[in-house]
Amino acid sequence: MPWAVGGLRLGRDWVAAPDPAALRTRWAALTGAEGAERERLFRPSRSRTPAAGAAALPGRRSASTARFADEPGPCPDPVRVLRDPFDEQWLLPDQRLIDTARPELWRVRDDHQLFTVEAPGADLVVTAHLPAGRLGRIRPLHRRPAGAEPNLAPGLLTLLGERYGGRVTPEDVLCWALAAGRPGPRGYEVPLAADPGRWRAGLELGRRLLTVRLRGARGGEPPRLPGGRRPYVRSALVAWPHEVTYEAGSETLGFGGGTVSPVPAGAWEYEVQGVRVLESWFAARSAHRAPDADGLEALGPAEWPQSWTSELLALVTTLALLADLAPERAAFEPGPALSAGELRAAGVLPPPAWSRRPASVLDHQEEGPGGQFALL
Q: Do 254 and 247 touch, CB atoms closer than 8 A?
């Protein structure tokens, strides 16, 4: 996947939150403030201040491009993003508020797109939502909207199709990467199987992994645990959860006086870079209540939203299924790999310089700062 983009740098944490209503409240508080108080709430950086102009984000044609200090405009509708490998949150899509928004990614963000994130020393992250955080380098699966051009070395799909005896799609390559790829000293390394049988086996495993990781995005069915293993709310939450606990014997997750079970040990113990996913997820939802929370970041829901409990059940399911698949994935052997010499002989390596740059996908003029058309 030659085209890779650095992660979004928000510059101020208040522009993203687990609750979209909190973002609208923050916008109202910011636009209702004046002078020095607005400046303080905004949290200026070298890249963004209330007096700085910025182009509209691609796909957000109604967004204001006037200086925020002069004309904030209406609150933009929050969009779903991925803040951590398993934490889907919401973002205010206004480039005037974001230090580095990566417009080239917004141009190819649609219902056909998948984003992979390559974090040092970690498994590949795949999401249908735009990654917006310190996650790692982002590689879109497609270079153009509507899945019109794969972000793969030119000639790779043709070579693999001939080698394996059938049509190979970009999503097939992604599924194979989930099954056979591993973090290595040069980044995320994906050997390509020389044997068609190993390819088919890896593809089948990778499709299951992708289905679980996407969690029902793009109109798919949300993954489910078998009957009897599905987590349910056994007792309702009665107060804001200050901590989350786990009872291994009864497989019960406790939070705020409420309980969820069964929660398999594999879901509770699932970690990313040494941090338990469930504990990190809860911490993100209590950040606005922390003693050191200040300014707009301290604005959040006063009561635990019911939607978060539904998200928790879905997250437990995802982690449990991935934990179930982990032994099979760890044991998977891709077998002998296609050599670099074969890939060079087929013209796949090295990928041309143009494939490392974003494609020109503009079908309309984009509005730049102050209402001027952007020159690209």
A: yes
The CA distance from 317 to 322, in Å, is 9
CA distances from 291 to 288, 304, 305 (A): 9, 18, 21
Cα-based torsion angle of the residue sequence 298, 300, 304, 309 in order, rounded to the nearest 10 degrees: -110
Q: Which long-range contacts (CB under 8 A, 24 or more apart) does 217-222 make?
A: 217/127, 217/128, 217/129, 218/111, 218/112, 218/128, 219/111, 222/314, 222/317
Residue 365 banded pLDDT, cuts 50, 70, 90: low
Distance CA(56)–CA(309), nearest Å, equals 34
> For residue range 89-140, what is the model confidence (pLDDT) as tens digits?
999 999 999 999 999 999 999 999 999 999 888 899 999 999 998 889 999 9
List, for residues 192-211, the tens digit of each pLDDT value. 999 999 999 999 999 999 99
Where residue 121 falls (left for φ over 0; alpha for ψ -120 to 50; beta otherwise) is left
The answer to whether 172 and 180 have CB atoms below 8 angstroms apart is no
Q: What angle do CA 343, 347, 350 make, to 5 degrees?
A: 75
What six digits make up the tokens of 334? 């891709």
Hey, what's the torsion of the CAs at 64, 67, 70, 71, to 10 degrees? Answer: 10
Q: Which residue has the tokens 């910011």?
A: 30
Prediction pTM value: 0.94
Instruction: Kindly give the pairing relationship between strand 16-17 and strand 79-84.
Output: unpaired
More confident of the two residues 133 and 151: 151
